[in-house]
Fold Protein ROT1.
Amino acid sequence: MMIAILSLTLSFLALARAAPDFSSANNLTSIAGTWSSNAAVSTGGDFCTPAEMKFDYPNNTGISYSFTDDGFFEEAQYRYTANASNPSCIQATIFWQHGTIGFNDNGSLTLYPFGSDGRIQVQDPCAAVTNVITYYDQQTLYSDWGITVDAQTANYVLRLNRFDGAKMPPMYLIARPPNMLPTQILTGVNASGQTVARKRSTSDVSQFWQRSAAPERISAREGMMLGAGLVGVAEA
Ligand SMILES: *[C@@H]1O[C@H](CO)[C@@H](O)[C@H](O)[C@H]1NC(C)=O
Ligand SMILES: *[C@@H]1O[C@H](CO)[C@@H](O)[C@H](O)[C@H]1NC(C)=O
Ligand SMILES: *[C@@H]1O[C@H](CO)[C@@H](O)[C@H](O)[C@H]1NC(C)=O
Ligand SMILES: *[C@@H]1O[C@H](CO)[C@@H](O)[C@H](O)[C@H]1NC(C)=O
Ligand SMILES: *[C@@H]1O[C@H](CO)[C@@H](O)[C@H](O)[C@H]1NC(C)=O
């Protein structure tokens, strides 16, 4: 047991050395890996297929981030937003984006998405248009972040605080190396100037509500953060 823990620690240290220049406060282990607030949600896999404008809905809500040692990120979020004036009007938002990371001198972290690849889908049973999927491109600044060890699970925990004070739910390390889609532009015009075909797909709202029968509670602050990301919504 002791040896297993030691070798794990050593391999984490090896990764940490290859990672960007972290401040000592964040230096417990490398940020490289896949982090998730809820085992149901992870980056990579089928969460989003950007070329098909398609999401594969997880069984529960949550958020997940992945980072690589060479400066790429992927972000996956699936959230419910309660409606105070009408409790039956719960809005579901799922989004995904990937791109590059900037570690700033003041200890903050900036996510720079590949603009053509991000996708967002909003399902609102009370809206005129109940199911909307569109592009998503949200550059985000996290003013501070840190990695600690959770006393109960003995797992690494990543905490991200957004520039506007919003605290992201704590995320646990679930994979290293990270589970991610290829860390390059996947749709639109890529680095070699070639256009990748885009296809739209619609998903069945009734099926979606069936699958998400066990909503996780989310705080008003988390709900607010969703609103900030909605841009240029178009009908699917
Ligand atoms: C991070 O920790 C390693 C190992 O303790 C140390 O060698 C390195 O200098 C630290 N880096 C920073 C930026 O504090
Ligand atoms: C969701 O749960 C169902 C039934 O338990 C399972 O078959 C399916 O693989 C799960 N989906 C995901 C994405 O985990
Ligand atoms: C809450 O639901 C009402 C309909 O009952 C709707 O008019 C309103 O826009 C919703 N508010 C939010 C924040 O979604
Ligand atoms: C930290 O640096 C980033 C990038 O240069 C900048 O956008 C941000 O405003 C800075 N934050 C503070 C608190 O100075
Ligand atoms: C650009 O996309 C084309 C078509 O999918 C692919 O063959 C090519 O390798 C891509 N180039 C780069 C640099 O990603």
In short: Residues 21-228 form one domain. The chain has one domain: 21-228. The mean pLDDT is 78. Residues 21-22, 24, 27 surround 2-acetamido-2-deoxy-beta-D-glucopyranose (ligand 1) (CB under 6 Å).
